[in-house]
Design brief:
Keywords: Repeat. The chain is built from 18 helices and no strands. The protein has helices spanning about 1-5, 20-30, 35-50, 55-65, 75-90, 95-110, 120-130, 135-145, 155-170, 170-180, 190-205, 220-235, 240-255, 260-275, 285-300, 310-320, 335-350, 355-360. It starts with a helix and ends with a helix.
Length: about 375
């Protein structure tokens, strides 16, 4: 702060509470300076002011960004970063009315451009995640207003869902399930649950580097199963191809977090329910990828129920492979990744076979 006073960017006025919004505005005016060092000094000064008067500075930042709609995004990022830091530093003091103002601003900043402008949109998303650590309901309500029927959600909508999941753990799952009952949220809920499940798997795979090494797979199991029931027994039957594919993609990683006894119980319904989708050739790649993940999860828990599904599974898979004669003749076609998943499915199927039957098939 003193460096900015010395350089003349900030006037040498007293830091009374009545002068802080004016000082904040002066600082934000200076974000157009081309010197990166000045940018960092402005960021630090805004954080300092926010520590003095949380509500006043957050409102000043919100008003400035709203009134300076044409301000270039690199300058907006400085202000959004400062807002995130101020919120994180004084979250317990943030009142609900100010939180709502900040949430609305950050949501609009994040989705204002349909193009991906990573630095800008990530900064806005980070503000939402920071506020969401205390006001998760309010953040979710605002984010849901950005979903439109039949329109692919903005990349950072899904990204924010995933980050909120990591920040709030199981708290977000009941909210996600509530969101799943909203018609215009159908497009995003499977994607959000897929991101959540993949994020948790990644987290559990790197517990030695995780901030909370006490997290376990069963921490999320019951909530994931509730979401699974909505997706598998409801939405997988949809006539809307995009929704159906999103559900298929989500179910694969979700099975890795289901309670072991529930996964074992569901396999006689789950595997046939996925295999039947092979009837739609355009969906075969997604079906194979999901099926591979489901079988991997089943093998990981030592499933015995899987044995009863092998005939159905191998017959369906044989029909798929026999219909792909071109894959056996080099060079491989450009979409050979789907064939790779068939091989993985065979691999996990073989793992579940009793040794005598496995030996007979390999001869």
């Amino acid at each position: 702060m003193q460096a900015l006073v010395d350089s003349g960017v900030v006037p040498t006025t007293s830091l009374s509470s009545s002068s802080l919004p004016g000082l904040a505005t002066t600082l934000m005016d200076a974000t157009t300076d081309k010197d990166p060092l000045v940018h960092e000094q402005i960021f630090s000064a805004l954080c300092y002011l926010g520590g003095q008067e949380l509500e006043e500075i957050l409102h000043a930042c919100e008003e400035y960004l709203r009134q300076h709609d044409k301000l270039a995004y690199p300058h907006r990022v400085i202000i959004l970063r400062a807002m995130e830091a101020v919120v994180k530093g004084s979250l317990s003091q943030l009142d609900k009315s100010t939180a709502k103002v900040v949430i609305f601003l950050a949501s609009n900043e994040m989705t204002k451009s349909k193009d991906i402008i990573f630095e800008w949109q990530q900064a806005a998303s980070n503000v939402l995640v920071a506020v969401g650590r205390r006001f998760i309901n309010k953040v979710m309500e605002e984010v849901l207003t950005k979903f439109q029927p039949g329109v692919l959600p903005h990349y950072f909508i899904v990204q924010t869902f995933a980050n909120l999941s990591m920040a709030n753990g199981v708290q977000i799952l009941p909210l996600s399930l509530t969101a799943c009952s909203v018609a215009n949220a159908h497009a995003v809920c499977p994607a959000a649950l897929q991101s959540f499940s993949e994020s948790i798997q990644e987290y559990l795979a790197n517990l030695d580097k995780a901030p909370d090494p006490t997290v376990r797979r069963d921490t999320f199991s019951n909530e994931i199963f509730s979401a699974y029931e909505v997706l598998f027994y409801g939405w997988l039957q949809s006539r809307e191809a995009k929704l159906r594919l999103a559900v298929v993609e989500a179910l694969g990683p979700m099975t890795h977090l289901l309670p072991s006894e529930k996964l074992e119980e569901q396999l006689p319904r789950l595997i046939p329910g996925i295999l039947v989708l092979y009837r739609k050739p355009a969906e075969a790649y997604y079906v194979s990828k999901s099926l591979c993940q489901i079988l991997e999860a089943s093998v990981n828990i030592g499933s015995r129920t899987l044995d009863t599904q092998l005939d159905t599974l191998l017959n369906a898979l044989q029909l798929q492979v026999m219909g792909m004669e071109s894959f056996w003749i080099p060079p491989l076609p450009p979409n050979c990744e789907g064939f790779t998943f068939y091989l993985y499915v065979f691999h996990f199927s073989m793992l579940s076979l009793p040794p005598p039957l496995k030996d007979a098939l390999l001869k």
